[in-house]
């Protein structure tokens, strides 16, 4: 039979593509056929899932998700039950411990506390506490029963059942999953074979058609292709049937899988109901265990109430009052001032129960007054209690709280009122103290006080403005500005206030005024009718603070003048052995503040008929010497430490120069000092006198007896009792009756002025003493003969130990007229030049 030819192509195809194109077409068709088969299978599976959902109400995919959720729920419930088990064991432990502590507390209450039998509430309290023991026994018994019956039996069984349920679920799930997996795997394998056979069928059919339509192919080839096609088709039909059977088998297994899960879910629901009921029973038993309103607990509580009912508070208080009727009455204890505090402090300006109102405390007292006034303004004290609150006491359930609130308010009002009265009393005390001190309320210390007049005691000697024994003219020198004042002792041993104020007839000028401080009836005052105080310090403080006038012209105290630091308290000097004697008095070795010193003491007048003017002059010169020494500072001038002028006798305190006066040192020397040592003595004196010359001071009594030798054989000029400080161009004419004739210069006997060159003459005589072992100058001549001897031009002879250089220097000191004598500065230069020459000679000889 002739086969029909395929229609010609609409376009020209290359020769190479004519062979390849039919094969590609067959392959594409096979792929399309395979995709269609897969889509059909997916539609069948979807239809099966839809049918299953309609029949069972549960989709297969939902069932597959639900099973793991059940497993997870079992796991969570198991963990919760384990935690509940721990919690219940902990609760049993706590309850048991609580019961044990309650028993111990009850035993302590019963054995350790002494319960007074006389008090009804005490006995009732004991009986009530004893009920705690019964309560503790009941708690212990309930805890033991709950632990055994509920935790160890019921809860443990529930946990085991939960574990068994989970185990069974896991096993069933694995079995069902295995059956389903085997069916799915068989279906997938058959489907894969079906696909391969379908592809083979498509290829065989395509090949058969190609051979059958090709006229060049033989009949034998066509028959072989046809046989091959029938063989492949047979295999396709076989695998087709096998695939359909596998589909039926898989759907059957899937249906059985769903039915098994549904049955298992029903089983799980019933099992959960049983286990939940067991869990509920455990919780009910737990609630019953923790119920404190059960009969056995209620019985104990009722018995406790029965113990408290017979108590009558009123009778209890009456019984308390009866048993304590012998107590002492309460009285306020009055505290007394502890006077040992003042004794310990060692001060005399504070008094028992008296406010100290002075410069140290004025500002503080004013601050206290200000604070008291502020408190009175800010403190609003109610005068009546809230009457509405009183009416609430009877109607209020919490009558104790209302009663307490009213009592607290009453106490507060009474306390505030009493405190207000007390504060007014304190304010009155402070105001009186300020008024008595001269200060006023609110007064501030101004800047008129140049230093704080603080003293350790109320003694006048301890006050900074007390200058001790001081002549009137010296006191006037210390006052510099208007209102300056100081307190001193005059020549009549009277206490005097020295003050600088403007002149009455010339307000542009100032003058010093002096007020004798009156002492009458153990009180001090400046003027009659003025303020009187028990001490000079308090009197001064009063006038400083009050600014009250001493006279009608406005005279008042403004600025205290502090005494110099070199004024020493007489009581600080401890006198020892005597060192020397003179017209002024004596010199003793003493101790001052743990330091060895030399003290020059002005003698007290032994002759009561001695003229007062002479006594005043001696005292003035003595003080003048101290003031002069206080200004000097040189290694060859004896060092001044201070003057004790608080009271008689007046004493000048100087450094202790160990080897004493130069004349005694020379006389006592067994083996006389060397010529060089003697020359050094002369040079030391010259340097000291050159310093005085520079300070424009004339000594007027230079001699070996008035020079001192220290432990290092250095000589220091001392004894300035006759010294005088000259101003520029001033000449001094001596009026002394007792003069050191043998040391005085020739011009002084002719009543010429005393100058530094007069001291140079005395220095020449002192050098002569040094090289003569302190022999008396002009020995063998009376004083009047010495004057004649000197005025004739005669001079002391050269001592044997004296070199020509030294004697030449002596004679230059005795030259006339006075301007031919060297100054002390020139003498020091001569010694320096001579020393350098000797040093050069020694260097050449060596």
The CATH topology of the largest domain corresponds to Substrate Binding Domain Of Dnak, Chain:A, Domain 2
Q: How many helices does DSSP assign? A: 20
Ranges where pLDDT stays below 50 over 5 or more residues in a row are 1-29, 35-54, 57-65, 447-452, 726-737, 838-846
Number of strands: 17
The computed structural class is alpha+beta
Within the largest sheet, what's the order of strands?
A: 8-12-13-11-10-9
Number of domains: 5
Strand content: 5-15%
Q: Helix coverage percent of residues?
A: 55-70%
User: What summary fits the major beta sheet?
Assistant: 6 strands, mixed
Based on the coordinates given, report the CATH architecture of the largest domain.
Answer: Up-down Bundle
Gross geometry: elongated
- Evaluate the radius of gyration: 67 Å
Note the gap between the termini: 170 Å
Layout: helices, strands, pairs:
Layout: H1 15-56, H2 60-112, H3 120-212, H4 219-289, H5 295-308, H6 313-323, H7 340-345, H8 362-378, H9 387-395, H10 399-437, E1 466-469, H11 472-478, E2 484-489, E3 495-502, E4 510-516, E5 518-520, E6 523-525, H12 536-546, E7 559-560, E8 567-568, E9 573-581, E10 585-592, E11 596-602, H13 612-629, E12 640-644, E13 651-655, H14 662-668, H15 675-694, E14 697-698, E15 707-709, E16 715-717, E17 724-725, H16 746-749, H17 756-770, H18 783-791, H19 804-813, H20 824-845
Parallel strand pairs: 1-2, 2-7, 8-12
Antiparallel strand pairs: 2-3, 3-4, 5-6, 9-10, 10-11, 11-13, 12-13, 14-17, 15-16
Helix pairs in contact: 1-3, 2-3, 3-4, 3-5, 8-10, 9-10, 15-17, 15-20, 17-19
Pfam families: PK_Tyr_Ser-Thr (PF07714), SH2 (PF00017)
GO biological process, one term: signal transduction
Catalytic activity: L-tyrosyl-[protein] + ATP = O-phospho-L-tyrosyl-[protein] + ADP + H(+)
């Amino acid at each position: 039979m002739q086969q029909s030819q395929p229609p010609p192509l609409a376009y020209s195809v290359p020769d190479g593509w004519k062979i390849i194109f039919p094969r590609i077409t067959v392959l594409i068709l096979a792929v399309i056929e395979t995709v269609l088969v897969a889509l059909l299978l997916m539609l069948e599976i979807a239809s099966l899932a839809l049918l299953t959902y309609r029949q069972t109400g549960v989709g297969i995919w939902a069932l597959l998700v639900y099973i793991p959720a059940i497993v997870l729920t079992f796991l969570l419930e198991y963990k919760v039950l384990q935690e509940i088990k721990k919690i219940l064991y902990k609760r049993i432990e706590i309850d048991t411990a609580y019961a044990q502590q309650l028993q111990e507390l009850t035993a302590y209450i019963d054995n350790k506390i002494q319960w007074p039998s006389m008090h009804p509430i005490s006995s009732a309290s004991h009986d009530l506490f004893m009920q705690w023991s019964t309560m503790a026994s009941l708690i212990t018994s309930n805890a033991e029963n709950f632990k055994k019956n509920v935790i160890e039996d019921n809860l443990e069984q529930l946990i085991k059942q939960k574990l068994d349920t989970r185990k069974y679920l896991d096993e069933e799930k694995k079995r069902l999953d295995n059956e389903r997996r085997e069916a799915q795997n068989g279906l997938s394998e058959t489907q894969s074979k079906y696909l391969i056979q379908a592809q083979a069928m498509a290829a065989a059919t395509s090949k058969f058609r190609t051979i059958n339509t090709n006229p060049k192919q033989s009949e034998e080839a066509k028959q072989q292709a046809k046989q091959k096609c029938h063989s492949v088709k047979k295999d396709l039909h076989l695998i087709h049937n096998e695939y359909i059977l596998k589909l039926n088998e898989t759907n059957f297994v899937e249906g059985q899988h769903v039915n098994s899960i549904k049955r298992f879910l029903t089983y799980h629901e019933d099992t959960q109901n049983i286990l939940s009921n067991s869990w509920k029973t455990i919780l009910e038993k737990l609630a019953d265990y923790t119920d404190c309103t059960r009969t056995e607990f209620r019985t104990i509580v009722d018995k406790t109430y029965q113990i408290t009912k017979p108590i009558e508070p009123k009778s209890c208080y009456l019984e308390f009052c009866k048993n304590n009727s012998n107590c002492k009455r309460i009285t306020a204890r009055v505290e007394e001032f502890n006077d040992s505090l003042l004794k310990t402090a060692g001060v005399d300006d504070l008094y028992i129960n008296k406010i100290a109102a002075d410069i140290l405390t004025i500002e503080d007292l004013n601050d206290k007054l200000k604070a008291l006034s502020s408190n009175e303004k800010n403190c609003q004290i109610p005068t009546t209690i809230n009457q509405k609150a009183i009416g609430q006491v009877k109607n209020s359930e919490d009558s104790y709280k209302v009663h307490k609130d009213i009592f607290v308010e009453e106490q507060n009002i009474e306390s505030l009122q009493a405190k207000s009265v007390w504060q007014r009393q304190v304010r009155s005390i402070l105001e009186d103290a300020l008024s008595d001190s001269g200060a006023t309320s609110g007064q501030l210390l101004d800047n008129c006080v140049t230093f704080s007049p603080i003293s350790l005691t109320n003694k006048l000697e301890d006050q900074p403005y007390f200058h001790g024994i001081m002549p009137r003219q010296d006191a006037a020198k210390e006052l510099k500005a208007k209102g300056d004042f100081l307190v001193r002792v005059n020549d009549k041993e009277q206490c005097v206030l020295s003050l600088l104020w403007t002149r009455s007839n010339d307000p542009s000028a100032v003058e010093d005024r002096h007020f004798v401080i009156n002492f009458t009836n153990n009180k001090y005052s400046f003027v009659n009718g003025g303020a009187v105080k028990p001490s000079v310090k308090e009197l001064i403080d009063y006038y400083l603070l009050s600014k009250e006038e001493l006279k009608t012209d406005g005279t008042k105290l403004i600025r205290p003048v502090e005494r110099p630091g070199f004024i020493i308290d007489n009581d600080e000097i401890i006198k020892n052995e005597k060192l020397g004697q003179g017209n002024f008095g004596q010199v003793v070795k003493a101790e001052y503040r743990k330091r060895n010193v030399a003290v020059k003491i002005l003698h007290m007048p032994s002759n009561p008929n001695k003229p007062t003017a002479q006594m005043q002059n001696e005292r003035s010169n003595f003080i003048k010497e101290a003031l002069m020494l206080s200004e000097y500072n040189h290694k060859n001038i004896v060092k001044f430490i201070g003057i004790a002028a608080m009271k008689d006798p007046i004493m000048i305190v100087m450094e202790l120069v160990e080897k004493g006066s130069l004349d005694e040192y020379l006389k006592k020397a067994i083996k006389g000092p060397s010529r060089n040592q003697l020359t050094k003595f002369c040079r030391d004196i010259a340097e000291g006198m050159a310093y005085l010359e520079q300070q424009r001071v004339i000594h007027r009594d230079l001699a070996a007896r008035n020079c001192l030798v220290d432990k290092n054989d250095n000589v220091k000029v001392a004894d300035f009792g006759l010294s005088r400080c000259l101003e520029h161009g001033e000449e001094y004419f001596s009026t002394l009756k007792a003069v050191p004739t043998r040391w005085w210069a020739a011009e002084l006997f002719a009543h010429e002025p005393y100058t530094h060159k007069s001291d140079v003459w005395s220095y020449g005589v002192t050098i002569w003493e040094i090289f003569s072992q302190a022999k008396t100058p002009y020995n063998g001549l009376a004083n009047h003969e010495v004057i004649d001897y000197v005025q004739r031009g005669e001079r002391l002879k050269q001592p044997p130990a004296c070199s020509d250089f030294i004697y030449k220097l002596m004679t230059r000191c005795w030259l006339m007229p006075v301007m031919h004598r060297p100054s002390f500065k020139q003498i020091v230069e001569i010694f320096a030049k001579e020393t350098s020459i000797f040093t050069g000679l020694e260097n050449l000889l060596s």
